[in-house]
């Protein structure tokens, strides 16, 4: 039986994921509403934003419906690995798109570039939230005796 888990959307990671979905949707919508360029870089950027949007929606749906517990995979590892992949893909798209396609007099392209950069930051925050463990620190302290 499927039960709805409202905590999936109200926890910090859930809120970040909802914002990721919104920003990636805004980004590819802004780019798609403009000139369609057959260039490989343009196609890569569109693929990146659409891929991140679709998988983030899928992750939110599976967590909200508690179906993620029925999958035969490590859900935490999957979501963290996807967030890491999305972070790197969005970093590339956030550099490639403004350098190659954004013009100073096009607010749509500038808005898409800004939303892409913000989506990159949100995915990086998600990686930090999912990999952080209570009581763990990556910084080792050395005692001066």
Task: Set out the fold topology.
Blueprint: H1 7-10, H2 12-32, H3 40-64, H4 75-101, H5 107-131
Helix pairs in contact: 2-3, 2-5, 3-4, 4-5
Walk me through what this model shows.
- It is a multi-pass membrane protein.
- InterPro entries: Marvel (IPR008253), MYADM-like (IPR047123).
- The chain crosses the membrane at residues 12-35, 41-62, 74-97, 109-129.
- Residues 8-135 form the MARVEL domain.
- The protein has 145 residues and is mainly α.
- The chain has one domain (7-131).
- Helices cover 70% and strands 0% of the residues.
- It has 5 helices and no strands.
- α2 packs antiparallel against α3 (40-64), α3 runs antiparallel to α4 (75-101) and α4 (75-101) packs antiparallel against α5.
- The mean pLDDT is 88.
The helix/strand series, from N terminus to C terminus, equals HHHHH
What kind of oligomer do you see?
A: single chain
Helix/strand-derived category reads mainly alpha
Largest sheet: none
- The global form is elongated
Low-confidence stretches: none
The rounded Rg comes to: 18 Å
E-strand count: 0
What proportion strand?
under 5%
Output the number of helix runs. 5
N- to C-terminal separation?
60 Å
Helix content: over 70%
Overall tally of domains: 1
Average pLDDT level: 88
Subcellular location: Membrane
Transmembrane segments: 12-35, 41-62, 74-97, 109-129
Protein name: MARVEL domain-containing protein
InterPro entries: Marvel, MYADM-like
């Amino acid at each position: 039986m499927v039960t709805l888990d409202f905590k999936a959307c109200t926890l910090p990671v859930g809120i970040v994921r909802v914002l990721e979905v919104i920003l990636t949707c805004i980004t590819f919508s802004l780019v798609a509403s403009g000139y369609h360029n057959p260039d490989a870089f343009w196609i890569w950027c569109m693929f990146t934003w659409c891929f991140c949007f679709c998988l983030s929606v899928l992750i939110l749906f599976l967590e909200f419906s508690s179906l993620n517990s029925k999958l035969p995979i490590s859900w935490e590892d999957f979501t963290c690995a996807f967030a890491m992949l999305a972070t790197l893909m969005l970093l590339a798209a956030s550099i490639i798109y403004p350098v190659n396609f954004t013009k100073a007099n096009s607010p749509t392209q500038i808005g898409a570039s800004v939303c892409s950069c913000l989506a990159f930051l949100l995915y990086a925050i998600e990686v930090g939230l999912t990999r952080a463990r209570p009581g763990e620190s990556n910084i080792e302290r050395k005692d001066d005796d």
